[in-house]
């Protein structure tokens, strides 16, 4: 299994079951990504973008399955409190 360190850190750190407690009130995917981008240095954003491109290239037509397999437990679109949605 390929390692995607920065993507792992983003998902596990910002999109976990406590997302509504740790993300300064942000409760949309775009809002949380915006918060991450404000705090991350440019080099990290560049490496993360490269990892995301590689993830897409590696898993292509099985992208959704691989994402759920890796991040399904942490990436919560609804955590039982209020739903995490796109804006």
Describe this structure in words.
With 87 residues, this protein is mostly helical. It has one domain (5-71). 60% of the residues lie in helices and 0% in strands. The radius of gyration is 13 Å and the shape is globular.
Number of strands: 0
User: Mean of residue pLDDT?
Assistant: 82
Tally of separate helices: 5
The sequence of SSEs as H and E is HHHHH
What is the rounded Rg? 13 Å
Low-confidence stretches: none
InterPro entries: CdiI_2 (IPR041129)
Protein name: CdiI immunity protein domain-containing protein
Organism: Enterobacter cloacae
Domain CdiI immunity protein: 3-76
Summarize the helices and strands and which ones pair or pack.
Elements: H1 5-14, H2 19-22, H3 29-39, H4 42-59, H5 63-71
Question: Key features?
Answer:
about 90 residues; mainly alpha
């Amino acid at each position: 299994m390929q390692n995607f360190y920065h993507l792992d850190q983003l998902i596990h750190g910002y999109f976990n079951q406590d997302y509504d407690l740790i993300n300064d009130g942000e409760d949309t995917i775009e809002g949380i990504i915006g918060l991450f981008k404000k705090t991350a240095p440019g080099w990290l954003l560049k490496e993360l973008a490269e990892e995301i491109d590689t993830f897409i290239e590696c898993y292509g037509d099985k992208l959704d399955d691989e994402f759920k397999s890796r991040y399904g437990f942490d990436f919560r679109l609804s955590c039982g409190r209020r739903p995490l949605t796109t804006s």
